[in-house]
User: What shape does this take?
Amino acid sequence: MSKQQNTMPGLRLRGEVWYIQKRCKYAEGGWLRESTGKTSRSEAEDYLIRRLAGLQQDAKRTDEGVYLFEEAALRYLEDIAHKSSAKAAAFHIDQLLPYIGDLPLEKIHDGTLRAFIQHETDRGISPKSVNNILIIVSAILNRAARVWRHENGNPWLRHAPPRLTRLSVKGKQAKPYPLSWVEQDRLFNTLPAHLAESALYTVNTGCREQEVCQLRWDWEAHIAELDTSVFVLPETLTKTGVERIVVLNSVAKRVVDAQRGKHPERVFTYRGRPVSHLHSNGWRSAWRRAELPAHEGVLKGVHNLRHTFGRRLRAACVPLETRKSLLGHSNGDITTHYSAAEIGELLTAAEKVVDRGIAQTPTLSLIHKNGLKTACSQNVVKGRKASAP
Assistant: This one.
């Protein structure tokens, strides 16, 4: 009898494992029901004691408005669930949680992140990739300080956090590799058909990978005055967080028209399903077969097509402001409320990259000898001669 009186109530043996079934005002619904995972009664009781203490501590912490990083991270993912970056953010947060998930927000700083940064560095993750994860941490802390509120009106984090120290990327970033026309032809001819179509659109619009993969037909807007159409990308998709207009030069328009009727929602598909990414095994294999640079320090991905588009615009002497608009860079005074005339100017500029004679990068020797402006002028003239019948 005394042995039974000394045992803790609330435990039930099911098979060989002890389960908890106990009233607890701190548990959801007033009951704590879960497995201890223990076959020993004494170990199950120890588990139950720790579990009850944890629930009590969590309740006290919640009443005081103290939040853990894991709670804030989940709230952040809910806030950005509609964005294209949500999946990548969730992956990075999973990497962070073992290191800082159970820490109060006030305890998140350079010191508590040091172990995570060291682990990522030791396994060969690039400084830029680590910095991208730190940017997510900063975004979570800033929302906790400026946006989210406890039911008592206080912010989740009392003071805005100091800027987290980023790793130096000087000399460690891979350099972009804009393609020449010969290299482009060689690469596109080795790509699978669906990737070649997407790549041709990308190199003629300068869009980022997910701006291509998630392109939807209901984002297309017809411009009657120009007898053409543009795509208006929502702020949830663009990197800058603002709407972006994508104009279609003759090549991009031809690619888009070829996709019509294949899918009711998405522009680019493969076997009836939307394309989820371009930098795939097919891309990597084609890059190798095209004998493009494969050594370290050089970008080998789809983003090179965006660099190619930008380089050709510059080679065609398209003004900087126009290049920024076409590439979707954040420019402060640029909005998507363009007039037909302004869209026409963008379309004229985008059309210049179609001409293989004009859109050649000026040589360094020509720039050094005559200056960039003169080099551009001579390059355009040279291009016109090259494209003449």
In short: The longest strand covers residues 31-38. The chain has three domains: 2-63, 69-146, 181-354. The two ends are 107 Å apart (CA to CA). Confidence is low (pLDDT under 50) at residues 1-5, 362-370, 379-389.
